[in-house]
Amino acid sequence: MSGKVYLVGAGPGDEELITVKGLRTIKEADVILYDRLANKKLLRYAAEDAETFYVGKKANDHYRTQKEINELLISKAQAGKIVTRLKGGDPFVFGRGGEEATLLAEAEIEFELVPGITSPVSVPAYAGIPLTHRDFNSSVAFVTGHQDPSKDKDFIDWDKLATGVGSLVILMGVGNLPKIVPRLINAGRDPQTPIALIRWGTRPEQETLTGKLENIVSKVEAADFQPPAVIIIGEVVHMHDKLNWFEKKPLFSKEIVVTRPTKQAAGFCQQLSRAGAKVIEAPAIKITPPEDYKPLDESLKKLNEYDWIIFTSVNGVKYMMERLFSLGHDVRALAGANLAAIGSKTAAELKSYSLKVDYIPEDYVSEAILADFSDQDLTGQKFLLPRANIARPTLEEGLEDLGADVDNITAYKTIQGAGNKNLVSRLAEDKIDVVTFTSSSTVRNFIEMLGADYHQLLSGVKLACIGPITADTVRDFGLEVEIIADEYTVEGLTTALQEYYN
């Protein structure tokens, strides 16, 4: 039974520029074929059991030939699979989508075309260059620069394009630029015409080079400006300096490492990306269930005995509530206890279970809770602390010193994460700008992953911490902390990073 193929435009590079329908086809696919210009981060939306194949191609370097790609599309579809073919930009704009669709039609395989946001439009927009503007032009043409203009070809009439359109957008033309420019000038285009080359447009690596037709070739050579790039020729390029919004983002081009657990890093990564950063995920910790549920279960059976339950993290809430529900109870079991939460995120997690938080300390650290309880006699009062296996003893010991009876229970485990296989080489090449830490355990595990050379690898790298406790852990390793959030949340850390670079 034949399957189905979706030919999907993945957009120009910014992962948020995928269409709603395109994202759905990724989620539903049994097989995904993605090319070099499709953002690989889109694959995280795929099903866990989906097959993925990299089929990228660039000049003189084809990971798979077009013939091999065609055969893979047909064989997987004929095996009854739902196949999503992810192509950079739009499949029908210099993407060979028409060829692949024809092949599928001839093989009588069902297919759908999902248009994408094409780079000739989106990349100039991210560089602040409108393709049309009433003060400059009212026409635009898209052409491929892949064909050598010095050869006699029927596909592109450079002589007519030279003066026949206001804005000329050239894709895949960096290599042939020394031949394209003189052809346009000889055909009548003013040598003073402004031109822009935008490399890796819509991504944090975006780089824009501007000049005039008469000097752009020498500028490209001097800058060693490499493809892939979109080229815009026309008076609209004058708007770049005024409207260049993307490259002015506070964290634009900064390569920032996030050490949070993978499942909890998404929101933080998204905030950094939207501020212009290139995010490198290197999870230093992983959150898992406790090895033995018995201590937690015993505490859950006697929840009515506790005066206070103090949650120190979102994970503590999640793991305790999940275990409570699995034992056949619901939120009514917590009716007799006061609930305290360290941090607004922890409080919000409790609220998601329709639980009212009785107390949130002004500073999101254990010491703040102890300071607020310090003038009370806690003798005879019972406290439950559902926490990580490696939680600091400060809160437990401090409450006991005030007379409280404390059950410090392991609700979840914190173990070393998977890291990132490219991280050490990126650090060694001085590519990383910032490493962020959101807990003391992320610090310790990250340093352990780097090994004995961590001082040298982190030389010149800015270290950013979610709060003072985490910062102190960094300093324990003899490292300097440049950035500490005023509000001890990932939002506060994002703000601190932006303020630092501003």
UniProtKB/TrEMBL annotation:
Its EC number is 2.1.1.107. Keywords: Lyase, Methyltransferase, Porphyrin biosynthesis, S-adenosyl-L-methionine, Transferase. Residues 270-494 form the Tetrapyrrole biosynthesis uroporphyrinogen III synthase domain. GO terms for molecular function: uroporphyrin-III C-methyltransferase activity; uroporphyrinogen-III synthase activity. It comes from the Bacteria. GO terms for biological process: methylation; siroheme biosynthetic process. Residues 4-216 form the Tetrapyrrole methylase domain. InterPro entries: 4pyrrol_Mease (IPR000878), 4pyrrol_Methylase_sf (IPR035996), 4pyrrol_syn_uPrphyn_synt_sf (IPR036108), 4pyrrol_synth_uPrphyn_synth (IPR003754), 4pyrrole_Mease_sub1 (IPR014777), 4pyrrole_Mease_sub2 (IPR014776), CobA/CysG_C (IPR006366), Siro_Cobalamin_biosynth (IPR050161). The keyword Iron does not apply. Belongs to the precorrin methyltransferase family. This is uroporphyrinogen-III C-methyltransferase. It comes from Halanaerobacter jeridensis.
